[in-house]
Write a sequence for this structure.
C-alpha cells in the first residue's frame, strides 16, 4: 500500500516536471518568434524618417534634414523655427523650394 502511494507521488511529480518542461519550451519558442519579429520591425522602422514636429512616420522631406508627416506639421514647424533661419540660402528662406508651396 505504502509503495503504491510513493509510486503515485513520484508519477505525479514526474508529470509536473514534464508539464513544466513542455511549458518552458513552448514559452521559449513563442519568445524567440516575438524577438525575431521585433528585430525585423525595428530594423524596418530605423529606415523610416520621422516627423520633426510630432514624431509620426514622415512622408514629406525638407532640405534641412527635417521630415514631416503632413503639410500642417511642416507649416507649424516653419512658423516655430523661421526666426532661426535668417540667411537667404537657408531652407526656410522665402525662395526655398521645399517651403515655397507651404507658406
Amino acid at each position: 500500500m505504502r509503495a503504491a502511494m510513493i509510486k503515485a507521488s513520484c508519477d505525479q511529480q514526474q508529470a509536473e516536471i514534464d508539464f513544466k518542461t513542455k511549458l518552458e519550451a513552448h514559452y521559449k519558442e513563442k519568445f524567440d518568434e516575438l524577438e525575431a519579429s521585433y528585430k525585423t520591425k525595428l530594423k524596418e522602422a530605423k529606415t523610416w524618417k520621422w516627423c520633426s514636429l510630432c514624431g509620426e512616420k514622415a512622408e514629406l522631406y525638407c532640405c534641412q534634414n527635417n521630415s514631416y508627416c503632413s503639410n500642417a506639421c511642416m507649416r507649424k514647424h516653419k512658423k516655430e523655427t523661421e526666426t532661426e533661419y535668417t540667411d537667404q540660402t537657408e531652407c526656410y528662406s522665402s525662395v526655398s523650394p521645399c517651403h515655397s508651396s507651404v507658406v
User: Anything to note?
Assistant: The mean pLDDT is 81. The first strand starts at residue 60 and ends at 61.
